[in-house]
Structures are given as C-alpha cells and as structure tokens.
UniProtKB/TrEMBL annotation:
Membrane topology according to the record: Peripheral membrane protein
Listed GO CC annotations: bacterial-type flagellum; plasma membrane
Entry's localization field: Cell membrane
Protein name: Flagellar FliJ protein
One record GO biological process: chemotaxis
Main location: membrane
This protein's record includes keyword Protein transport: yes
Organism name: Campylobacter vulpis
Signal peptide (from-to): none
Keywords, ordered alphabetically: Bacterial flagellum biogenesis, Bacterial flagellum protein export, Cell membrane, Chemotaxis, Membrane, Protein transport, Transport
Family: Belongs to the FliJ family.
Amino acid sequence: MKSKFNAVIKVKKQQLDKAQTDLNAALQRQKENEKLLGLAQQELLNLGSLKGQISSEELRANVFMEGVAREALARAKEKVELSHKEINHYQFLYQKAHLDYEKMKYLQSEELKVMQKAMQKAEEKFLDELAVSRFFKKEKNE
C-alpha cells in the first residue's frame, strides 16, 4: 500500500546513507592522520639518536631537522584532533538522520495500520450487507 510518507522516507534514507558515507570517510581520514602522527613521532625519535662524533655542521643540520620534525609532529597532532572533532560531528549527523528515518518509518507503519483497519472495517461492512441482502432474498424466495 502506498503511504504519504513513502517519498519522505526515500529522502530520509538517502540522507541516512549520505551521513553513513561521510562518517566512514571521516573515520578513514582519522586512521590516515593517526598513521601519519605515528610516522612523525618515529621520525623525531630517529633524528634524536645521533651516535659517534659529529661535526658542528651535522649538529646544526640535525637540530634544524628536529625542528622540522617537531613542526610536522605538531601538524599531525592537530590533524588528528581535527579529525576527531569531524568524526564527532558526523556521528551526530548520522544519529540525527537515523532518528529522522526511524520516525518516518514509524509514522508510515502507523498510517498503514490505520489504513488496514479501515479496509478491514469496509470489508466487514460489505460482508454484512451481502449477508443481509442474501437473507432477505432467501426469505423472499420462500
């Protein structure tokens, strides 16, 4: 049976699917950012471990590279924090879309129940009228 909610449910389902896709993409970006953060931390640790005698130029270059690695680490941490906020945002949007979709599904099911009761009542009325008409027709023929 068709319901007035069919079109709305279709749109809500599309919104729910889009929210799910966006959330999955944000989760994937967060995994990538966490991987980059781990790589930046590892790079910084590798730069800090110089062994043996080194010249002043090598020391300056190493200090400069450590500064660059610290900046990269800070950017990676910032990206992880931003991706975490992004995930929270998309989770909220997904929950909202899911709630809206479920609301429309519930309203549709309630409307279908009402329509089904109305059809059942109409069928009962028709059967009663049919039985009454047959009864009177039978009495007339006797």
